[in-house]
Amino acid sequence: MDYQNRAGSKFGGGGVASQPATNADRRERLRKLALETIDLDKDPYFFKNHVGSFECRLCLTVHQNDGSYLAHTQGRKHQTNLARRAAREQKEGKDRDGVIPGMLAGVQVKKNIVKIGRPGYRITKVRDPYTRQNGLLFQFQFPQIDPGTVPRLRFMSAFEQKVEEPDKNFQYFIVAAAPYETVAVKLQAREVDKREGKHWNWYDEDSKEFWVQILFKTERDERYSAVPGLAPGRK
């Protein structure tokens, strides 16, 4: 930092730097240091939003330029959150690459995807004419889905989600398709009949619609599902 030509300084000597100048110099030194050690393209917490600002997904902070973000990564808050995240991942059994045991190592995770909102949907109550099972028919619309992407679905228990207080009387039906937001439907915590023809899904690539049918087991099936000969088992 150049301390020459400051008010009150002698020729060849250094004057006293002001507080704003000292802070600016410190941020610049931190930015240069971060550039030598951090590759923003490989930083999983670096995100450029739709207004051109930069966000830290770990600390939930917003920065006007990459220099400000890089200086933030060298600060106490970011380093503390990194240590907490590493400790939590180690506790959950994740390895250094962030791969959960049992997952495919070759799966590529998309980053910095700008979500465009929720998909359109329609839910219809259905009943099997032969078994009298009650169920639901879902129809999701994804008119701007990424080419080559097929919607994915899964069931989630109330104790897996972090949005609301867990209630054992409910479960969640999750549907995900980039670049749309992941949606969840709250269902009764009844056992779903996953036999062939009962639970199915189909994606229409022409109309960009995703169809899912869910039928719940009857009370008799739920009660005697583990007893041979009294209720049909899963195929």
From TrEMBL:
It is found in: Nucleus. Pfam families: SF3A2, zf-met. GO terms for cellular component: catalytic step 2 spliceosome; U2 snRNP; U2-type prespliceosome. SMART domains: CactinC_cactus, ZnF_U1. One of its GO terms (molecular function) is zinc ion binding. Residues 54-84 form the Matrin-type domain. GO terms for biological process: spliceosomal complex assembly. Residues 1-25 are annotated as: Disordered. Belongs to the SF3A2 family. This is Matrin-type domain-containing protein. It comes from Zopfia rhizophila CBS 207.26.
